[in-house]
Amino acid sequence: MGPTQGKELSPQMRDRVLKLFARFDVDGSKSIEKSETIKYWKSNFAKLNTEELFKSVDTDNSGTISEEEWLNFWTSVLRSGHTEEEIADELESIESGSSWVKFENLDKKKG
Q: How far apart are CA 58 and CA 51, in angstroms?
């Protein structure tokens, strides 16, 4: 097991990740639907961003993203070698309406 495999998000980063989840989850259902992300990005390549987001994060292909899938995704970003500072920069970028970025070399194992 490499040094990044067992890494977990710090409590502060976990809170930050969940804050962004809540911005997408406008109906408070504890899951993100595609209609919510399309509204979030408005016309800024909304459909493309939504498709890329769901391809990356919706691991059970249910058409919604649960809090658990969301946290697992960002944990896998951390474990793939990205720093929490890089994750924070990406979260800030998404919060300001920028496009979804595909992270390469993520462990795509389900579960």
A: 10
56, 80 in Cβ contact below 8 A?
no
DSSP 80: T
pTM as predicted? 0.86
What 3-state DSSP class applies to 5? coil
pLDDT per position as a tens digit, 58-86: 999 999 999 999 999 999 999 999 999 99
Check if the beta carbon of residue 98 is closer than 8 Å to that of residue 66: no
**55-59, 78-82, 90-94, 95-99: least confident range:** 95-99
**How many residues are listed for the chain in this entry?**
111
Cβ atoms of 69 and 32 within 8 Å: the answer is no
- What are the start-end ranges of the H helices in 1-111? 11-24, 34-41, 46-57, 67-79, 84-95
